[in-house]
Amino acid sequence: MSSAATSIVLAVIVALVKGLLIVIVLATAFAYMTLAERKISARIQLRYGPNRVGPFGFLQPAADGVKLFLKEKAAPEGRDNFLYLLAPALAAAAALFAFSVIPIDQTICIGGTHGAGPLSASCPGGYPLHWDLAHLNIGLLFVLGITSLGVYSIFLGGWASNSKYSLLGALRSSAQLISYEMAVSFALIGPVLLAGSLNLETVVNQQHSLWFVFLQPMGFLLYFTGALAETNRLPFDLPEAESELVAGYHTEYSGMRFGLFFMAEYINMVTVCSIATVMFLGGWMAPFFFLPNWLGPIWFVAKVGLLIFVMMWVRWTFPRLRYDRLMQFGWKVLLPLGLVNLLVTSFFVALK
Amino acid sequence: MFRELIGGLRITMREMMTKPITIQYPEEQRPVPPRHRGRHILHRYDNGLEKCIGCELCAGACPVGCIYVQAAQNDPQHPVSPGERYAVRYEINLMRCIYCGYCAEACPTEAITLGPRLDLCDYKRERLVATKDDLLEAWPGFQPMATGVAAGTGAPAPQTTPMGAGSSHLGPAGAAPGLRPAIPEPRTKGGGADPI
Amino acid sequence: MTVIFGIAAGLALVGALGVVLSQRTLYSALSLVVNMVSLAVLFLLLDAQFLAAVQIIVYAGAVMVLFVFIIALLSPGAEERVHPLEVRLLLGGLAAVVFTLVIGRLTLNGITVAGNGRLHGGLGPFAPTVVNAHGQVQTLGEQLFTTYLLPFEVTSLLLLVAAVGAVYLSKRRRPLL
To answer: For residue B100, is it within any domain?
Structure first.
């Protein structure tokens, strides 16, 4: 086999392995995030969470999974069947897909010399082992693009259900998502300006002296708030609040179809927290300079876990925002603040 | 605005550190109040005679109609109750009972009262119709009348079928309430394992 | 590469046909989304990664979402057929032929056949090698803010006018008490 063919086969195999790992890890993470949510919410409410199914409820997600698979698939009459079935699949696919550019650790150079200092990701003469599935130079834009495609799944799910509550919930949710995408994008431009690249690994490497969260505190808060809105979490979850809209766009879904929507929401949470970690919290870098840096993935998972914990903490603390105030907040508060952040950051970067 | 947000988060964090107030039922249970109306108990006198005289006033007073009493004449040689009659069949449908206590108020001899036992659930409907041997209070030396797995625990101590443990509401933890024969036949009271 | 090109181009064609031939309006809009995503893949094959990402974010992720909103909310009924079928076929065919000729002529500009029979395109100042060396975003940014500054600003103004006009047109006219 020619070397071109070998490299292609090798690339495909590596990509398949990484892809499989991502899917397995994210699916397991989703399962245990549901358990974590229930335990954390229980502790906040002075009760234990599920603790019957396994020690500390560790088998509860398995029980939930079995339940979802075995449930009756009640579907409304008059629905558009193709779009009805497509929506949860698209939601889960987009959520999983968006995670494929997030680097968990620095590129390892197998053979050959590591290019131009420890901050480079190139590897002349050897094989660069990237820790993300797709090492794109426009990694950040890719994630933003895929999350924009995820809006379709919500909208189609609501529309295809042939139900008032679903349609209203879907409309509200889609409008909310596309509004807060703006705030999120502006918040993310700050670290991009500071790092000088859209490549996520380069952004992390540029934080080796100081994490960007200290240089961009408002950007981080803006991003986190926008991320809460992007994933339909409280305090921005009116589209799926039980007392308002039954369950919004996933009212008419049952069994594993609802499970896929649920999975998409939680994996979106993981993705936005990972982006926050990569852009603001230094990705795989140890918090203090004296701690070992070679535990990259562990630091990454710890930081993402901390952010997810904060998301759950916030959910069970704050009341819900009414929908019109939610939209006002997105357009009239977050967007101008994002612009101000952008102006100030570009001013300082230009002066440097 | 940030002060309120952070304040709210502090409160929630404080609650997370507090020990939960949940009780792990059924391993731990709260004691019931003294006048709690749970499962019924048919009482006896200290000499072993049953207090119930088969007058059926409880069945008449019951607003739901869940009590069935079948009375019979007392055998003078082997009296069951200090009176002319006794109840040969006494059944309460625990699924229909509303635990109001009217039967206890109506009973002239204070034979039927509502005890503290509240964990009345089962997988089969037939097992939730309590018969006399379930309801009858234990008495030292009493031999269980019902046949069945749970009755014969082999212990000489007063231990009726699990549903009939009248003295304490805490049965053996997780004991299946009543591995009894399905729907019991009307039992003749003469002879057999008589309490006296 | 050719396989991916085949798949992406095929999907783009399927999407385009779906837009025209769908019975239901919403399916047309969704076919257009499929078309746009395939176009983004084609951009990727041409080494224009930034453009592919922006195509997905802006076109497929924002513009088409609004299209789908409107179609799903307002549920337009069947189109009215104004002209008879033959007229439409004639005019459409004519337009297709003219379009193909123009695009073909533009594409063939500067394409030469080298000695081994392969096609070569002309390399202008923005060939992929040059752009990638300098950085795609950087090149785009520099051109937008220097050479094409006036069209850029005029387009921004146009978008602003459109936004203001939409807000004005959708305001409820409240009677003065």
So the answer is: yes
Cβ of A116 under 8 Å from any chain B Cβ? no
- Supply the pLDDT for residue A241: 64
- B16 to chain A, closest Cα gap in Å: 5
Nearest to B20 among A43, A313, A317 (CB): A43
β-sheet bridge partners, residue A108 = A129
Cα four-point dihedral sign B119, B122, B125, B126: negative
Put simply, the answer to whether C56 touches A155 (Cβ < 8 Å) is no
| Interface touch A145/C136, C-beta < 8 Å | no
Helix, strand, coil abundance in chain B, percent, nearest 5: 20, 15, 70
Q: Do residue A45 and residue B15 have CB atoms under 8 angstroms apart? A: yes
Does residue A245 register a pLDDT over 60?
no
Residues of C with CB under 8 A from a CB of A: 26, 30, 33, 37, 49-50, 53-54, 56-57, 60-62, 65, 68-69, 72-73, 136-137
Closest CA to A194 of A185, A182, A181, A207: A207
pLDDT band at C18 (very low <50, low <70, confident <90, very high): very high
Q: Is residue C89 part of a domain?
A: no
Domain count, chain A: 1
In a domain, B23, yes or no: no
Range of the domain at B67: 34-142+156-164
SS3 of chain A: helix, strand, coil, percent, to 5: 70, 0, 30
Closest partner residue to A44 (CB to CB) among B5, B15, B22 is B15
Asked whether residue A4 is domain-assigned, the answer is no
- Number of domains within chain C: 2
Tokens for A251, please give them. 């009212």
Which residue in chain B has the smallest CA separation from A43? B16
Q: Can you give the pLDDT at residue A17?
A: 92
Is C106 part of a structural domain of the chain?
Answer: no
Between residues B155 and A268, which one has the greater pLDDT? A268
Q: Decide: pTM greater than 0.90.
A: no
Q: Is residue B169 assigned to a domain?
A: no
Among the partner residues C26, C57, C73, nearest to A148 by beta-carbon distance: C57
Examine the domain organization and report whether C64 and C132 are in the same domain: no
Measured CA to CA, the distance from residue C26 to residue C19 in angstroms comes to: 9
CATH number of the domain bearing residue C27: 1.20.120.1200
The Cα A72–Cα C92 span in angstroms is: 50
| pLDDT given at position C57 | 92
Judged by a CB distance cut-off of 8 A, whether residue A52 touches chain B is: no
Between chain C and chain B, are at least 3 CB pairs below 8 A? no
CB atoms inside a 10 Å sphere around CB A39: 20
Q: Is the peptide bond before B63 cis (omega within 30 degrees of 0)?
A: no
To the nearest whole angstrom, how far is the Cα of C59 from the nearest Cα of chain A?
10
The CB-side HSE value for A346 (13 A sphere, CA atoms) comes to 10
Q: Examine residue C120 and state whether it is found in any structural domain, yes or no.
A: no
Neighbours of A65 (CB within 10 A): 15
pLDDT of C96-112, one tens digit each? 999 999 988 887 776 66
Q: Is residue C24 part of a domain?
A: yes
- The answer to which of A194-208, C49-63, C67-81 has the lowest mean pLDDT is C67-81
Nearest chain B residue to A45, by CA: B15
> Any chain B CB within 8 A of the CB of A45?
yes
